[in-house]
Amino acid sequence: xxxxxxxxxxxxxxxxxxxxxxxxxxxxxxxxxxxxxxxxxxxxxxxxxxxxxxxxxxxxxxxxxxxxxxxxxxxxxxxxxxxxxxxxxxxxxxxxxxx
Amino acid sequence: xxxxxxxxxxxxxxxxxxxxxxxxxxxxxxxxxxxxxxxxxxxxxxxxxxxxxxxxxxxxxxxxxxxxxxxxxxxxxxxxxxxxxxxxxxxxxxxxxxxxxxxxxxxxxxxxxxxxxxxxxxxxxxxxxxxxxxxxxxxxxxxxxxxxxxxxxxxxxxxxxxxxxxxxxxxxxxxxxxx
Lengths: 99, 179
Description:
The structure holds 2 protein chains of 2 kinds.
Chain A: H1 2-11, H2 21-98
Chain B: H1 7-13, H2 20-39, H3 42-59, H4 66-88, H5 111-121, H6 126-136, H7 142-149, H8 153-175
């Protein structure tokens, strides 16, 4: 049995690795790192685009609100003028009726 | 899980100044040979060895010392080889007689008998085959094999006994009595 086990040890002795293995491992590591760097760059680009879109949407909302408030102010002013004019006309009519 | 060692022993074996390149150079023959003896396919063995070292590169900071690294490499290589064969499934495998043998670090014994033994080992089912490779390539004890392959020690011993009986019978039939 010992002889047979010795023969098995001889048969399964370690082999020399292919000379290209080390270079292949380092190439795979470098490829993996460049892939993750590329992924990181795409992630950063996507985040920038989203941030710009959010900023644009916010500015648009602020501008719309400002325009709405200006229109409201104009309408209020127009109503005030109309009320004042109507009061004046009413007063003129009342004065001429009394005379 | 790596077998328990005292902190002093572990530190003595640790080599903090070891770079990844040093670890690769120290272990590439072991990893490649495990895969080659299991698969008998040089290209696949090189592919698996490359993948295992790539995983090691990502994991190396979590491993405590040189001994832990060797244990981790044996474990990952063994499981990766078994998965490879299972995934390959019924796909046609290359004819064993046609494979070019990588050179052996130290050649002993009868080259013809060695070749025949390797061919016969390649015919064993996956787990018993990996048990045989770990036992006779790496000279691991059944307890160590049981940790690497995550199987009970008695299963390892039973695989060893059965595989030895099968191989002995086949080799005797094909090459005559080997004492």
